[in-house]
Amino acid sequence: MRILCVDDEPLALQMLELSIKKAKPDAEVLGFDEPEDLLAEAEKNSCDIAFLDIHMSEMDGVEAAKRLKEINPKMNIIFVTGFSEYTGDAMRLHASGYIMKPVTKEKVAAELDDLRFPIIPKSNALLKVQCFGNFDVFTPDGKPLRFERSKSKEVFAYLVHRKGSSCTKKEIAAVLFEDMPYDAKQQMYMQKIMSSLMKSLKAAGVEKVIRKSYNNISVDPELLDCDYYRFQELDAGAVNAYQCEYMSQYYWADFMYDDFSDDY
Hints:
Blueprint: E1 2-6, H1 10-23, E2 28-32, H2 35-44, E3 49-53, H3 61-71, E4 76-81, H4 87-92, E5 97-100, H5 105-112, E6 127-130, E7 136-138, H6 150-162, H7 169-176, H8 184-203, E8 210-213, E9 216-219, E10 224-226, H9 227-232, H10 236-241, H11 251-262
Parallel strand pairs: 1-2, 1-3, 3-4, 4-5, 6-10
Antiparallel strand pairs: 6-7, 8-9
């Protein structure tokens, strides 16, 4: 979880940062004394929650919130102020919460427990998946997942694209090999590819990311930290990382990118 906060008074900012860290020790907390710096960070990288002091000299928190909502409509905004007359402005922006100064750990914790857009933790993710640009897969410690066959990696890419929807080996073969007949030779080759995929996942201890039933296979999206999935959730970091390139090394992804890009 990444949390940004801003207050143009140094002591107030220090208290705000400290209270957030005490309330959420496992979060990454970044503090700023200039709203423009916070906005630049939010635009460049992902952000789940922003604590904004309303009464600032260069740009007030309400204006900063409006600009944050343009970056990510689902960002959780929590206003911080000592002036109760700003409450109406805050609520009209559909803020997640509102804290009156002085800020305390308890006040911060209460707001984090009642977010307008709850944060879905990805601590249970077994793999990190990159779809934008070239398709790549990494273990939680950042090491690339080794696939024995390039085609098994391509199969996994297609399953990631389907985001949990199951498909048959025949359907996968039709995507990977276009008009080639699904004869006995092709079926045997597909079986080797699928076995290689499961062997690679098992070697990394992450075979649970695949769900199998009779003649059907899919990924479990809940076990993947995927930029494509985060993009669909309007995660700011994923939205800003998208440069109109989707699984670039696979020709079939071009057609699926057309459908995908039409929606966003």
